[in-house]
Write a structure and sequence with these properties.
Oligomer: single chain
Strand order of the largest sheet: 1-2-3-5-4
CATH architecture: 2-Layer Sandwich
Largest sheet: 5 strands, antiparallel
Number of helices: 4
Order of helices and strands: EHHEEHHEE
Radius of gyration: 16 Å
């Protein structure tokens, strides 16, 4: 049997941002510049930028509590036809169940307007629907959201 070797992931960029509101714009701009020319259509690049901004806002606000001295870490890698953006904060075990997308109730606009559901809670829903796959991991205090976008334009309804 012949095995096909998969290329090793290649780090394209890694940086940190102070946990201050507004810095999500810096993250999305830097990630967009990093992945430019890697085969994402303009529409898919815009979706990735939206997901990066939302995940970074969550890391700043919920993970690091808007404390500028605690950085948000962003790493962009390419693994074959996948662009992977990992956004990490130090919320870890203190993040609580509301930061676990599997614990969250699906947003319902009618229930939100009626006051039966919190007006908040769109973050993970939005992120999941912008990228091809999303994972959330917690290792001690380190909480990471992994955003995966395939350059081949795979359907975005697959989530890991």
């Amino acid at each position: 049997m012949t095995q096909v070797a998969r290329p090793m992931p290649r780090r394209l960029d890694a940086f940190t941002l102070a946990s201050e509101p507004g810095n999500e714009r810096l993250a999305l701009a830097r990630v967009a510049g990093t992945v430019q020319g890697l085969g994402l259509s303009e529409a898919r690049l815009e979706r990735l930028k939206t997901a990066v901004a939302e995940a970074t806002m969550n890391a700043i606000e919920h993970g690091n509590g808007n404390r500028p001295e605690i950085p948000v870490e962003v790493e962009v890698t390419q693994n074959g036809d996948e662009i992977v953006v990992a956004i990490s904060d130090q919320g870890g075990e203190n993040a609580g169940p509301s930061d676990d997308p599997s614990d969250q109730e699906e947003p319902d606009i009618a229930r939100k307007l009626d006051g039966d559901q919190s007006p908040r809670g769109w973050g993970f829903f939005l992120i999941r629907n912008m990228v091809d796959a999303m994972r959330v991991t917690t290792d001690g205090q380190r909480h990471t959201i992994w955003l995966i976008m395939r350059t081949g334009g795979a359907p975005h309804d697959e989530h890991i």
